[in-house]
Amino acid sequence: MSGAHVPVMVDEVLELLDPVPGACVVDGTVGLGGHAERIAERIGPSGCLIGIDRDREALKRAARRLERFGNRVQLVHARLSFLRDAVAGSGRSHVDGVLLDLGVCSIHLDTPERGFSFRADGPLDMRLDPSAGETAAELLSRLTADQLAGVLRDGGVPNPRRLATALKHHQPIDTTRQLADAVRSVPQRRRRHHPATLVFQALRIAVNDEFGELETGLVAALDSLRPGGRLAVLSYHSGEDRRVKRFLAEEERGCICPPEMPVCGCGRQARVRRIGRGRAPSSSEIGRNPRARSARLRGAERC
Ligand SMILES: C[S@@+](CC[C@H](N)C(=O)[O-])C[C@H]1O[C@@H](n2cnc3c(N)ncnc32)[C@H](O)[C@@H]1O
């Protein structure tokens, strides 16, 4: 999202979810309400939109943006992994659509006190819910060099072991600038991304257990969809997109018996039909909103 909170691939998301008047849709990462606003317009006064976010500040801003829709919109402070509870809390057993627009938004990257960005100095926090869990500084100080190398590797950082050793050597690291300086002290080959970008992203993923949340959230989203209901997921890096792609492929396959089994013994049925094979934003959208650059949209219909 840019500073103007432009929702990414919003027309493609609407085409995929196809929310009709009266539909009930969950926006599992409502953020600043950009996608939610367009969905709320489509579902009309008889529809319902359940907007979830683990960040109270994002929810406050979404509430302002979505105020005009009245009680068509319900906002819930929760994590994706509790999506089923949010649906049950609205008095429904199933919904017609679920959108997951992963990662962080402009309030995180543009607020130095939240500690997500190395472009300005601030405390090394990175919690999407600042009322819960360990900060990035605490995580860095607690992990051994080996464990830290694992976190960096999972986040796609090249040379994770060398960097982890250097970061442990630079302890204590309490601010975003200290972390960026410590990363810069390790000679790196020139790459597409600034080395600190990937290190910050890897730590953010670990601090917020983003992969665990995504995997549990995807299962909860499918469980909450009625047959024929649609799921749309926007991811912003290969670690996320790979998980979404694998999950949808497995759920589409159904039977997981070894190929040598003459008859199916697992009884597993396909739970989704994938819609397309993943879409990227148009070059004109990337020109208008550079944050859309890395987006991948995947979708599926519940069987
Ligand atoms: C890319 S932004 C969403 C932007 C939104 N679609 C819009 O148009 O304004 C992602 C949001 O997801 C939230 N988020 C990330 N992981 C979450 C999780 N596991 N549970 C709930 N919210 C999460 C973040 O706090 C952030 O507000």
Rg (CA only): 20 Å
- What general form does the structure show? globular
Determine the number of helices (DSSP H or I, runs of at least 4 residues). Answer: 13
CATH superfamily of the largest domain, by name, is Vaccinia Virus protein VP39
Q: In total, how many domains does the architecture comprise?
A: 2
Strand order across the largest sheet: 3-2-1-4-5-7-6
What structural category characterises the helix and strand content?
Answer: alpha/beta
- CATH architecture assignment of the largest domain: 3-Layer(aba) Sandwich
Q: Which ligands are bound?
A: S-adenosylmethionine
CATH class category name of the largest domain: Alpha Beta
Main sheet makeup: 7 strands, mixed
Low confidence ranges: none
Summarize the amount of helix as a percent range: 40-55%
Distance between the termini: 32 Å
Molecular structure report:
By secondary structure, the chain is an alpha/beta fold. It folds into 2 domains: 10-106 and 210-302, 3-Layer(aba) Sandwich (Rossmann fold); 130-207, Putative methyltransferase TM0872, insert domain (DNA polymerase, domain 1, Orthogonal Bundle). The chain has helices at 10-17, 34-43, 56-66, 83-89, 106-109, 136-142, 145-154, 160-169, 176-184, 195-207, 210-224, 238-253, 283-288, and strands at residues 24-27, 48-53, 73-77, 95-101, 225-235, 272-279, 296-302. Strands 3-2-1-4-5-7-6 form a 7-stranded mixed beta sheet, with helices on both faces. Helix 7 packs across helix 10 and helix 9 (176-184) packs across helix 10. The longest helix has 16 residues, at 238-253. It starts with 9 loop residues before the first helix and ends with a strand. The mean pLDDT is 95. The site of S-adenosylmethionine has 22 residues, from helix 2 and strand 2. Residues 1, 5, 7, 29, 31-35, 52-55, 58, 79-80, 101, 103-105, 128, 213 line the site of S-adenosylmethionine (SAM).
